[in-house]
Amino acid sequence: MSLSFFDQFTSPCLLGIPLILLSMLFPALLLPSQSNRWVNNRLSTLQSWFLHLITKQLMIPLNKKGHKWALILTSLMMLLLTINLLGLLPYTFTPTTQLSMNMAFALPLWLATLLTGLRNQPSISLGHLLPEGTPTLLIPALIMIETTSLLIRPLALGVRLTANLTAGHLLIQLISTATTALLPIMPAASALTTLILLLLTILELAVAMIQAYVFVLLLSLYLQENI
Amino acid sequence: GPLSERRLMDVRLGELPAWLATCDLSPQGLLGGVQKAWRSYYDKYINVRRGGPAGISMLLAGYCLLSYGWNYQHISKISFLVSA
């Protein structure tokens, strides 16, 4: 049975039991829970510092009502970050390569921001559909364009995350296959490919972190418009 | 002490079936066992005054091994087709 390159993205299954829930719950182990000590261990201190940093970063542009979203946005950020970074370890499965999971994150949260805006300040939310200073003749076309761009936001959020991670993992697999295939034939080319693999791994580390950040940042931007 | 109260490390090999019979195998019991195991690992390697990368690295290495085990059946069927 030959293996295609997409087999790494199949949901893991052991004796018919889907393991995706376990791979999603594992990051919870890495994030230590609260303790009642004044000075914690180094891992907890590091995590608290990091959590404080991203909460500050996300919450500064929001007004007081938006601060109710602090818990969900910060925990989403931590989840995506840990899942993405854990996926770079060998043999692990990355749940965020599944479009279904990313859409399950993006659609409800985007819809929540939209409905919050439409419920609390309907005219301001609808006003975002028309940028200031547009020529009168262009207004109908622009409203349609802006509505389309509004409705496509959850799809864009989900697909952006999925595509970035899937493409990265696929590239890593392809280049490492090339490296092992070239090794008996032309070791010099194999060494060059190993260098490319190293650079790609550094890029993937960056992409994993940036994509998680971008997901949550865009959600907070959509929230800013609507709250 | 009595068999049911001893920890697994103190139980002799011959007494293992008897010890297994005394322990609580209900879902709550198993969950409690998992929680205790995690707590003892966490308190021994991570929740220390001057911890380093070792505590988390062992956890991540264990996760890699576990994932390898989960995927073994799938990976073992690779035939390295290298067209020369």
Automatic annotation (TrEMBL), chain A:
<keyword id="KW-0813">Transport</keyword>
<dbReference type="GO" id="GO:0046933">
    <property type="term" value="F:proton-transporting ATP synthase activity, rotational mechanism"/>
</dbReference>
<comment type="similarity">
    <text>Belongs to the ATPase A chain family.</text>
</comment>
<comment type="subunit">
    <text>Component of the ATP synthase complex composed at least of ATP5F1A/subunit alpha, ATP5F1B/subunit beta, ATP5MC1/subunit c (homooctomer), MT-ATP6/subunit a, MT-ATP8/subunit 8, ATP5ME/subunit e, ATP5MF/subunit f, ATP5MG/subunit g, ATP5MK/subunit k, ATP5MJ/subunit j, ATP5F1C/subunit gamma, ATP5F1D/subunit delta, ATP5F1E/subunit epsilon, ATP5PF/subunit F6, ATP5PB/subunit b, ATP5PD/subunit d, ATP5PO/subunit OSCP.</text>
</comment>
<keyword id="KW-0812">Transmembrane</keyword>
<dbReference type="Pfam" id="PF00119">
    <property type="entry name" value="ATP-synt_A"/>
</dbReference>
<feature type="transmembrane region" description="Helical">
    <location>
        <begin position="69"/>
        <end position="89"/>
    </location>
</feature>
<keyword id="KW-0496">Mitochondrion</keyword>
<dbReference type="InterPro" id="IPR000568">
    <property type="entry name" value="ATP_synth_F0_asu"/>
</dbReference>
<dbReference type="InterPro" id="IPR035908">
    <property type="entry name" value="F0_ATP_A_sf"/>
</dbReference>
<keyword id="KW-0138">CF(0)</keyword>
<keyword id="KW-0066">ATP synthesis</keyword>
<dbReference type="GO" id="GO:0045259">
    <property type="term" value="C:proton-transporting ATP synthase complex"/>
</dbReference>
<feature type="transmembrane region" description="Helical">
    <location>
        <begin position="138"/>
        <end position="158"/>
    </location>
</feature>
<keyword id="KW-0406">Ion transport</keyword>
<protein>
    <recommendedName>
        <fullName>ATP synthase subunit a</fullName>
    </recommendedName>
</protein>
<keyword id="KW-1133">Transmembrane helix</keyword>
<feature type="transmembrane region" description="Helical">
    <location>
        <begin position="195"/>
        <end position="223"/>
    </location>
</feature>
<feature type="transmembrane region" description="Helical">
    <location>
        <begin position="12"/>
        <end position="31"/>
    </location>
</feature>
<feature type="transmembrane region" description="Helical">
    <location>
        <begin position="170"/>
        <end position="189"/>
    </location>
</feature>
<dbReference type="InterPro" id="IPR023011">
    <property type="entry name" value="ATP_synth_F0_asu_AS"/>
</dbReference>
<keyword id="KW-0999">Mitochondrion inner membrane</keyword>
From TrEMBL, chain B:
<keyword id="KW-0138">CF(0)</keyword>
<keyword id="KW-0066">ATP synthesis</keyword>
<keyword id="KW-0813">Transport</keyword>
<keyword id="KW-0375">Hydrogen ion transport</keyword>
<keyword id="KW-0496">Mitochondrion</keyword>
<dbReference type="GO" id="GO:0045259">
    <property type="term" value="C:proton-transporting ATP synthase complex"/>
</dbReference>
<keyword id="KW-0406">Ion transport</keyword>
<dbReference type="GO" id="GO:0031966">
    <property type="term" value="C:mitochondrial membrane"/>
</dbReference>
<dbReference type="GO" id="GO:0042776">
    <property type="term" value="P:proton motive force-driven mitochondrial ATP synthesis"/>
</dbReference>
<protein>
    <submittedName>
        <fullName>ATPK synthase</fullName>
    </submittedName>
</protein>
<dbReference type="Pfam" id="PF10206">
    <property type="entry name" value="WRW"/>
</dbReference>
<dbReference type="GO" id="GO:0046933">
    <property type="term" value="F:proton-transporting ATP synthase activity, rotational mechanism"/>
</dbReference>
<comment type="similarity">
    <text>Belongs to the ATPase F chain family.</text>
</comment>
<dbReference type="InterPro" id="IPR019344">
    <property type="entry name" value="F1F0-ATPsyn_F_prd"/>
</dbReference>
<keyword id="KW-0472">Membrane</keyword>
